[in-house]
Design a protein that fits this description.
Layout (H helix, E strand, L loop, with lengths): L5 H15 L8 E4 L2 E4 L4 E8 L5 E5 L5 E4 L2 E2 L6 E6 L3 E6 L8 E8 L4 E10 L6 E4 L3 E2 L3 E11 L4 E6 L2 E3 L2 E7 L2 E11 L8 E7 L7 E7 L2 E2 L7 E4 L10 E6 L8 E4 L2 E4 L8 E9 L2 E11 L6 E5 L11 H29 L3 E2 L10 H8 L11 E2 L1
Parallel strand pairs: 2-10, 12-20
Antiparallel strand pairs: 1-3, 3-8, 4-5, 4-9, 5-6, 7-8, 9-10, 11-13, 13-17, 14-15, 14-18, 16-17, 18-19, 21-24, 22-25, 23-24, 25-26, 26-27, 28-29
Length: 386
């Protein structure tokens, strides 16, 4: 240029200056932004424009169907809405997102050369609270198999078994169900009767839960025979003075060998059916005696103890024995006195007496005959007292 004639230099300089302001001197471009959204949520898909000169902008879905031609809707899907169209930014929204909407959305700028970028839409499916499946009943001395299941998530959820704050390793399996995943974790643990009611939990973690966990709690239900239980009875006694001597017995049988008696308390350890029967509690002081009974029913088919409290079977009066003896003696004495008086009066009224004038009645038959025949008493000077 330094050796170029001055007028030619001015011509070239002017051409370059005008070229820098022409539309063809600026390079148009488009940029897309990736989006991640939860299933059921709303996604915003944005396309950024550079040096936009009013050329055609087209947005297409992953199946290359045109959603919008500039600002005009091309696909009849009301879930898609054009919310912004400027020389610098084009933005659409997609509501009620599902996993089938996942994929690349194309932002295309049609000029002499077509420019496009892809905005990738990723859909997260958080897991629901997992469920626990039991393959078979847990029996004392055996094993229990528990399976924790998270039926649907994306990406696959992570499952952990926890007992007493410690993780129990499980066998994990995973199944692909058309963009979502089903996950399960199975554990096998030995069980004893002490494990009955033990607490376990299955935890599901997932990126969509933001550090939170979905937890399913489970309590072991262990079946076992009812041997080894104990029975404890307490005989509640009142009285004045309070009875000190409390006796326990078994009706029609002897007390079991493992029976322990401590004052009013009666206890049997390791119950069995041989302990069935009726147990009697007796208490006594100087003024009387009382008793009560309990019936023990123990069955292997029904692991429980049933107590049937009985009613008071015997109670003495609180009257002192000396008073009772005195009253009885007085009654006997009174009865004897009454009998003596009654007999004496009876004998006195039923006696037969004769006067001196009738003393010869037995020797004179005619007098007796006259008396029996009802003759007038004036014929003889005799008097009779019957």
């Amino acid at each position: 240029l330094f050796f170029m004639p001055f007028h030619l230099f001015i011509t070239v300089f002017s051409f370059l200056f005008l070229l820098s302001f022409s539309p063809w001197s600026r390079c148009q471009a488009v940029q897309a932004e990736n989006v991640t959204v939860l299933e059921g949520g709303t996604a915003q898909i944005s396309c950024r424009l550079q040096n936009y000169d009013g050329s055609i902008v087209v947005i297409q879905n992953p199946r290359r169907q045109t959603l919008f031609f500039n600002g005009t809707r091309a696909l009849k899907d009301d879930r898609f809405q054009m919310v912004l169209f400027t020389p610098r930014l084009v933005r659409i929204t997609l509501t009620n997102v599902s996993v089938s909407d996942e994929g690349g959305y194309f932002c295309q700028l049609y000029t002499d050369a077509t420019h496009h970028q892809v905005a990738t839409l990723s859909v997260l499916v958080p897991p629901e609270t997992p469920t626990v499946e039991v393959k078979q009943e847990a029996v004392e001395g055996g094993e229990v198999e528990l399976t924790c299941v998270s039926p649907r998530s994306k990406p696959a959820a992570t499952l952990r078994w926890i007992r007493n704050g410690r993780e129990i390793p499980g066998v994990v399996s995973q199944q692909d169900n058309a963009k979502t995943f089903s996950v399960s974790s199975t554990i096998r643990i030995p069980v004893e009767r002490k494990d009955n009611g033990a607490a376990l939990s299955c935890e599901a973690s997932h990126p969509a839960l933001n550090g939170q966990k979905k937890i399913r709690h489970y309590r072991l239900d262990v079946y076992f025979a009812p041997t080894g239980d104990s029975l404890s009875l307490t005989c509640s006694v009142t009285g004045n003075p309070l009875p000190r001597n409390i006796q326990w017995s078994k009706i029609n049988d002897t007390l079991p060998e493992r029976a322990e008696i401590s004052g009013p308390t009666f206890q049997i350890s390791r119950l069995s059916q041989s302990h069935n029967g009726t147990y009697l509690c007796q208490a006594q002081n100087n003024f009387g005696r009382a008793a009560d009974h309990y019936t023990l029913l123990f069955s292997l088919h029904f692991p429980q103890v049933v107590l049937n409290p009985g009613a008071v079977v015997e109670t003495h009066s609180a009257v002192p024995y000396a008073v009772i003896g005195g009253v009885l003696a007085l009654l006997v004495f009174t009865v004897i006195c009454v009998l003596i008086v009654t007999i004496w009066c009876s004998v006195r009224q039923k006696g037969s007496y004769l006067t001196h004038e009738a003393s010869g009645l037995d020797e004179h038959g005619e007098v007796q005959e006259a008396f029996l025949n009802g003759n007038d008493a004036s014929q003889g000077k005799k008097e009779y007292l019957l």
